[in-house]
Design brief:
- By secondary structure, the chain is α+β, with helices and mostly antiparallel strands.
- The chain has helices at about 5-10, 15-25, 25-40, 45-50, 60-70, 70-100, 115-120, 130-140, and strands at about 105-115, 140-150, 160-175.
- The protein folds into two domains: about 5-75; about 105-180, no CATH class.
- β2 (about 140-150) and β3 form a beta hairpin.
- α3 (about 25-40) runs antiparallel to α4.
């Protein structure tokens, strides 16, 4: 961690650390500031590092992983996960009561399928089976939105290549299926 960040942590200056994390031009400074916030118990640093681990840049992912593996973050992650589990239990109990009173409850899921799973051999207009989606459909899931995923073949190229698609699925939970709410 940079000496400037260390000094801000020593002074417990969360405002300046947050500003550096969100507005600095250097990604390494941003991650150092996020780590400083984590050391001070500020969850905004945790959230920043968790999103950084999803970066396309391998160097950013490596530094974020080092922070994630740190003992300071492990303690915070445990606290946050425990809170999420408690909140989920409250939501599940609320959903069960709504089902008992005749209300509706839905589950949602995002699924990615690579282009190979989507592109079948078929004559025009005939259509083709998508086994992965069919399995979800047979389990009661309905596709409510599809978002294609594209990637440029060449750096700076305007043309892009279809690589797959994200499918947003929805399933209505029936009163007889309320036990499914416990599954994560």
């Amino acid at each position: 961690m940079a000496s400037q960040i260390d000094e801000l942590v020593r002074m417990r200056d969360v405002d300046t650390l947050f500003e550096l994390m969100t507005e600095d031009d250097e990604w390494l400074t941003q991650l150092d500031a996020a780590e400083g916030l984590i050391k001070l118990g500020d969850r905004r640093g945790y959230e920043f590092v968790v999103t950084a681990i999803l970066s396309d840049d391998e160097a950013i992912r490596e530094v974020a992983q080092e922070i994630i593996d740190s003992p300071e973050l492990a303690k915070m992650r445990g606290e946050i996960e425990a809170e999420r589990r408690r909140a989920r239990r409250v939501h599940i109990e609320s959903a069960r009561k709504r089902l008992q009173n005749g209300g509706k409850v839905f589950q949602y899921k995002m699924v990615y399928l690579p282009s190979g799973a989507l592109m079948g051999e078929s004559s025009l207009g005939e259509g083709f089976d998508i086994p992965a989606l069919e399995e979800y459909g047979l389990d009661g899931w309905e596709v409510i939105h599809m978002l294609p995923s594209r990637r440029a073949l060449l750096v700076g190229s305007i043309d892009d290549h279809f690589t797959g698609a994200y499918f947003l699925l929805k399933k209505e939970v029936l009163a007889s299926e309320s036990a499914e709410l416990d599954k994560e």
